[in-house]
Amino acid sequence: MTDSVNNQKRRDFIKGTSVAAVGAGAMAFPMISTAQTVSMRFQSTWPQKDIFHEYAVDFADKVNSMTGGRLKIEVLPAGSVVKAFDLLDAVSKGTLDGGHGVIAYWYGKNAAVALWGSGPSFGMDANMLLAWHKYGGGKELLDEIYGDLKMDVVSFMSGPMPTQPLGWFKKPVTKAEDLKGLKFRTVGLSVDMFTKMGVAVNALPGGEIVPAMDRGLLDAAEFNNASSDRLLGFPDVSKVCMLQSFHQSSEQFEIMFNKTKYNKLPAEIKAIIANAAEASSADMSWKAVDRYSKDYAEMQSKDGVKFFKTPDSILKAQLKAWDEVTKEKSAANPMFKKVFESQRAFAARAAKWQADTSVDFKMAQAFYAQKK
Q1: What does 68-84 look like in DSSP terms, one character per residue?
Q2: How many CB atoms lie within 10 A of CB 115?
Q3: Which DSSP helix (H) or strand (E) runs through 159?
Q4: Per the database record, which ranges form the Ubiquitinol-cytochrome C reductase Fe-S subunit TAT signal domain (predicted)?
Q5: Most buried among 175, 202, 220, 263, by the most CB within 10 A?
């Protein structure tokens, strides 16, 4: 066999191998569908300057980037299209394509939804409640609730919030009796809990709280965290903030889409959305540590705010009131009881595991604080 024949055979073999490799590669890496850019108009339930609105924009930016511009989400602040408490209906009807808020705002439709964040959650923190939602049956229960309500939405829970303060007051509260008769802002099942404690509750969206306090329509109020509270102007109307509370110690955000429009998206875009919600959840929790701690320090050093720990007697009174409220709600609302018992079962092992295994970080913090 001549060299020229051998060379031709080698060339034919290499060519065949290359074609086979390309074919195998095409099978291993299918072409991602390309389509015209889909635009979606979102609205948050937050004022534009609030860090919560920033979290909504962060989610949209992640989706827009990961889809390569095939899906473009524009996020508008609260009130741009509808009022904050009307977001769920607007998304369901298609007036908006989606939104970012908290599920406690839909409390008036079914009190069970407020269990995603209101109350002590059987000792689970917000991240553990998200674990219940994803792995303990919470997502399926929420889908059932929205189905019963005829809400045409797809929901993603995201972003574990740190424990919220009891709130802003004219002077420190030292016992549960100090709360009685106060005109106080809160939302969700916290309304029932504080009402049970003798508080005169008014549920207002975030952007309306400080103006109401300034006009004397509220004696005290809670919203969420150091950054939001500072940006909303709480230090301008109060210099006393009580830290620690069970009223919303395990809350998280909800990202929602109009289901009809969502279902028209390609499978890979839906996967990007789901993963972006989880990525945003982690990113939000990290950003919160950085920003909240800065604003917490600056409110003390620059704004003259005094922070006080909520007395244990008030925390115990909250637990007692919560127990009474949830018994009443469970008796009157089968879905409430179903969600409540699902959380209880998950927490029976998860909260015990965390309590048994978590070290006391306050000990380490105090040790190094005195080393300064």
Answers
A1: TTSEEEEEE-TTSSS-G
A2: 27
A3: strand 153-160
A4: 5-33
A5: 220
